[in-house]
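[Q] Does anyone have a clean structure-token version of this?
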Amino acid sequence: QVQLVESGGGLVQPGGSLRLSCAASRSIARFDAMGWYRQAPGVQRELVATMTSGGSTNYADSVKGRFTISRENAKNTVSLQMNSLKPEDTAVYYCSATRVVNVEGATYTHWGQGTQVTVSS
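[A] Here you go.
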């Protein structure tokens, strides 16, 4: 098991920036991918950004060029730098840690409790 604790959320004006951090209770090097997802009211949780253990990244089209994911294995942290924020970025942001659990490629994902990001003037 691993506990994931997010921080850095808050209220920001449109065009502003926030940096989210996720602290893991154990080594994140053992996970195949770390990521950030978000969920707005009445909407399904959606991928924001992921980074594999090899450093490959994947971003939602809506955040490409504005958000950057990074991970520091030595500190067991994953961060999400969010720039040029828009009202539609408002959501609860969740940190995730995913492992491949069998040869068929099935995965298991751990989740943090989430941190609220509100973009509003």
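[Q] Thanks! Anything notable?
[A] The radius of gyration is 14 Å.
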